[in-house]
User: Fold 4Fe4S-binding SPASM domain-containing protein from marine sediment metagenome.
Amino acid sequence: DELPGIFDLTEQEKIPRLCVYHLAYAGRGDKMRRFDLEPRRTRAVVDYIFQRSQDLHARGIDKDILTVDNHADNPYLYMRVQKEQPQRTEEVYQMLRWNGGNQSGIAVSSIDPLGHLHVDQFSWHYSLGDVRQRPFAEIWSDTSDPVMRLLKDRKPHLKGRCRVCKWLDVCNGNLRVRAERYFGDFLAPDPACYLTDEEIGIAPGTPAAEESARWPVPVHDESAGSSQLSPAPRRRLR
Ligand code: SF4
Assistant:
């Protein structure tokens, strides 16, 4: 419910860039996991971000507006373009393909203060090596590390709905550390994906539906639908 004010402030103060992060279940984010938005509400927030971004653009106000850490936003954006600007679908899809979805271990890395190299800033629990001992390029291209090997070619190894999703090329299975924290398996489906089985190309009664059901995620529990941003219940951290 604070997002409208944040957008207003960004505009009033002429701030050039606004990043809105989905919750990553790692570090402090993992402790706050129970406060994560339900899929329906996540959709409403993403709708709102799209709407405000379009409004800024329509008024000629140049700003970078980013959503971060949930690459289900890529297909969700594409579906919105299909509805609202069908003439741009091919162009937008090409850009999303270029983006490629989640890039942990591919184009994203993180080095902690001790020199340990990680696949992203949320995965400090797993070190690929120490850049004080080995050059970055050597560690980064060493696929004898099992996590690095899987992340660089993850699609055939994913499980559940991510394995059979039609949007893999533009989402790439989303944030693996969130799946790991939720299911204890970093190849499991990302629990923060708010797209329904239908939206990701899974038809009822098919083997793909069975695979999806083997790894239940929150969106399975609700019938998702685009809605307007309404005040969220206030919650307090305990
Ligand atoms: S099911 Fe997985 S791969 Fe498909 S959009 Fe959702 S998070 Fe991405």
Notes: Residues 39-58 form the longest helix (20 residues). The pocket of iron/sulfur cluster is lined by residues 71-72, 75, 161-162, 165, 167-168, 171, 173-174, 189-190, 193, 195, 200 (CB under 6 Å).
